[in-house]
Design goal:
Radius of gyration: 21 Å
Subcellular location: Cell membrane
GO molecular function: membrane insertase activity
GO cellular component, one term: plasma membrane
Keywords: Cell membrane, Chaperone, Membrane, Protein transport, Transmembrane, Transmembrane helix, Transport
Strand order of the largest sheet: 1-2
InterPro entries: YidC/ALB3/OXA1/COX18, YidC/Oxa/ALB_C, YidC_ALB_C
Number of domains: 1
Amino acid sequence: MFDALFFEPILALLKSIYSNVAFSDLGIAIVFLTLLIRVVLFPFFYRSAKDQALMRKIQPHVEKIKQKHKNNREEQGRALMELYREHKLNPFSSFLIILVQLPIFFALFKLFRDSEFLAETFINTTFLGVLQLSTPSIMLAVVAGALQYIQGKLSLGKQKNQTKGGTQKFVVMMIYFAPILSFVVLIRLPAALGIYWVISTLFSIGQQFMINKKLESKNEEYERKNTKNGGVNGV
């Protein structure tokens, strides 16, 4: 079932791109495939990134609610859900995007892990005739780690009145942990997956930059409203 839903369609699409668009260069075909996947999944990625950005904007109020109702978990949960509804936030959207990506990544891993299968399926298994895609690439692992760090820093945006709450500490920790994880994972995987990772992260950086710009004006309006009303939900 997994092969029918994910592996075979992705393989067929990659073959078509390889033959008709990518000049029989597998690396270029992977770049086009990655961009196509990200465009198709853009609504999911956009909503997830937007929700995460907004979540960080209202983090001071989240921490105040947790402190105010620290002895009443039920009331704390109600107040938090009311805050999320007010800002049209889905606190679980980041998990949704992970679930969407995993089958695609596993399908690509299954496709690229077998060098003999690649050689039988594609005449040219290099990127621009230089990078062998069936073996790991330290260079791509380093680039992916650096881009992951940039994406993490961008995702924080320009925050004011940052709190020292547990959520904020976790986000900051992940900014430094994710690049290391990317490097450790990709240094063991075929370079083909490294290209997918790098292009996908570049797409995410552009998307995050766009979201940050869009939210700046909304955040200014939110801060004015919060100052005028003296807080959100009575916190």
